[in-house]
Amino acid sequence: MGREGCRRGVAKDAVELLLVDSEVEFREAAARALHGRGFRVAQAGGSEQALALIRDSPPQAVVLDVGKDGTSSLSVLAKIRAADPRVPVIMLTDEGETDLAMCGIELGAVDVMHKPTDIDHLSSRIRSLVASGSAAPREKSIAHLMVPASAYQRVYEDESVQRVIQVLTRSLFYAVPGKLTRQGHRSVLVYSREDSFLGCIRLNDILDLLIPPSLKEAYTPFEAGMFLARCKLLGTITAGEILGEQRFVDIEAPLMEAVQLMVVDSLINIPVLKQGELVGVLTDRNLLLEICNLATCGV
User: Fold this and answer.
1) What are the sequence ranges of the domains in the chain?
2) Is the distance from CB of 210 to CB of 225 less than 8 angstroms?
3) What is the pLDDT of residues 246-268, one digit of tens each?
4) When comparing pLDDT for 183 and 200, which is higher?
């Protein structure tokens, strides 16, 4: 079909876009919508037509709608990338197609968006990619996202719960005349006296100590004054005794392995080990920042 029907009323400096989709009805509807947002849209129903258009009139970006035959669509992507490695390609695919999205990114797609796609979001993304010349995204490693272990306060396994609370409070807040201001970390690191890392104590572990064991199985109405009493009755428990079953992740593990461990155990962070030694802590905050970066692409 080429560009016919999508030239009139478009500015001379409009983005040249190639839309590849084997389903004619959806392709033409998307082309009209993008044309209405200022794009000069060429259409192709398959790889041969797409490659001919890329050769004869190179687009500034390509949108590849992945149909029912995902393997065929990946083949089209590979051929487009081989014909012009510099042109950014956005894949549109169904939300649950994780493997397909992974393969597309591996082949050089600069972005993957799930269908149905918001046309305004797609338009903004295309313009952003053309303006920035963005390359294909790459998943960051745990090493890139973790906080160095040296940024965390530490306690020893034989120190009292009161000492743990003091250190955790200093880690989380710093004093300003008349108020407390949040500073950073909601965890402290626990070591043996031989300097072996044993695990993390998190804020939630301290809160858990306030609930009497007999009241953890089923809901029981609480009374005013119980919080005060439980704070006073924490007793002589040590940091080592607070530690429950610990979860760690190796620095070379895929990022999703750390995510799964954190989700399954409702963790705000997870210690990162390298050859058995603590080197950092991967936090939910840093994961959220990376999710925002990848999911929104700055749009």
Assistant:
1) 16-138, 143-294
2) no
3) 999 999 999 999 999 999 999 99
4) 200
